[in-house]
């Protein structure tokens, strides 16, 4: 395929014109997630306030092979006609990873009439990305990145966007972002973590660097990182000046993260049962709703994707109902007869629903607000276990600090259980150098002490 370089076609909308006229000036974005932002999840997410959603990452090197029909169907099913449908699956941005401009362009050409933009993955920090030389492991080869983006910018009828991670310094991060803009990226998503920040080293995203990027470029900027509760969304937008917030882990565990977000946080009714249930629906109901979407689609949803979603959505209940967790894990579904076999998942979710209703009835007469507790190690609030909510895993540093503080508290005669959230706040002072950055005034109290986002049981966020 002949690749042209130079200015983009004049007919194509870009920058803020594209952001407003095509995307609809969105503020609430669902991130690209391998095996987890598939069509069924996108449909569920749109019901609960998501305004723009990215597809799972597609490997251009594999997708370009037109004979590999299995990979193509699994990653973007054109035959069923549902993915990218203008009435049910838009706005949609399809993400590719690549290190070859011709392969990327050829793959993007297959998709360009079925989405609103093509995104280049420059953020994946996983080992598979290192082996395949894509994602954040391209960030030192600026010439190649420029060529990848510019090739799409010049040769596609739709815009190209880019999602990237920051560098250790603000200066290099800003120069990087400006290079991406010069190459032709019409929207930039800045994930405020370094390439090395993953797994137990995830740490806090640096909102200051996102703000610096926003102030340095003229295209829309989406902020990614540190979003668990709705209060974090407003805090992030104010701290970064970004045009929108993108969520990955937070939205996976609570697909209603963006639901009812127009309700003012400072409203007297914000913490009413009615409003809490809008933001944090009963997780068993969400799981059943998701399965119903899966059953009604012509497009096949992967077995691993379904199981992954159910474990995440219902995690608060599965922690307590260990037999259901084991039963869910043992469900065997044939990919060839998935829709016929999916009743096994439905049965587990229905049993979870019954048990959660029993727990909720036992708490009848107490407001949901009064049932919210604080996780002692991280200091983050926990909703009643029958409600959807974010999941967070304490870091080794937090566990060590908590253990030390707890040991000291048993010696002190004037220390009470009410000290737990306060001692957890001291953990910020024991974070690894560079983890805290300047986030204390930038993140709401309910997520102030989050150091790590779960990784071992999570989808690969790209």
UniProtKB/TrEMBL annotation:
GO molecular function annotation: flavin adenine dinucleotide binding; tRNA dihydrouridine synthase activity
Enzymatic reactions: 5,6-dihydrouridine(16) in tRNA + NAD(+) = uridine(16) in tRNA + NADH + H(+); a 5,6-dihydrouridine in mRNA + NAD(+) = a uridine in mRNA + NADH + H(+); a 5,6-dihydrouridine in mRNA + NADP(+) = a uridine in mRNA + NADPH + H(+); 5,6-dihydrouridine(17) in tRNA + NAD(+) = uridine(17) in tRNA + NADH + H(+)
Coiled coil location: 342-369
Entries under SUPFAM superfamilies matching the protein: FMN-linked oxidoreductases (SSF51395)
Keyword Flavoprotein: yes
Location of region: Disordered: 408-441
Superkingdom to which the source organism belongs: Eukaryota
DUS-like FMN-binding domain ranges (all copies): 30-340
Protein name listed in UniProt: tRNA-dihydrouridine(16/17) synthase [NAD(P)(+)]
Lineage, highest ranks first: Eukaryota, Fungi, Dikarya, Basidiomycota, Agaricomycotina
